Amino acid sequence: MKIVSIGDIHMATGNLARLAQVLRSADLMILAGDLTNFGGVEDSRKVLEAVSEYCQRVLAVPGNVDQREVFPFLEEAGVALHGRGVVIDGVAIFGCGGSNLTPFHTPSELSEAEIEQTLRRGYGEVGERRPLVMVCHAPPLRTRCDRLRDGTAVGSAAARRLIEEVQPEVCISGHIHESAGRDLIGRTPVLNAGAFRDGGYIVVETRGLDVAARLEFL
Known about the structure:
Helix content is about 25%, strand content about 30%.
């Protein structure tokens, strides 16, 4: 199975055409949050429609700058991963949208307790199945994926705790544009593709229980 993930799209779907060959080779696309720029249902629908031109099978979490109405919209569209767990082609995937609290009071922020509850609810829906992919818009705390330009770590402590506990085969995150990169928590690779306008994307390939994840740029 081949998964391609992009995040922090912020309506900047222009790079999809440049990525067309990669996207059309994917079995599944995962949108890792911030589909819009403080937009709601209509803007989110535009992003989903643009992505679906290249890959018909899509899963998504909202980001912190997506309005709260985006959460039920993704549920209605049948693509939601927030607090959900699904198994596709033998791969278990669960997730959490929004972000931990920020100084900017963006529309879809969650307490650490809410992030933990949401992730555990999604994980509970896939049980002990492997391989396991965790999707969390907020990157786990204290990694190369959660640093502001001044080096401050602003990721989610709850996301990190769950990774340390269940050790998914890969964690896909986003949120911090300047922290596109890869790190490890135990044996779990953590990847942040950064803002899609900058050309970053993640490729996850599975063969049975073997999982390879890499960060690529256009």
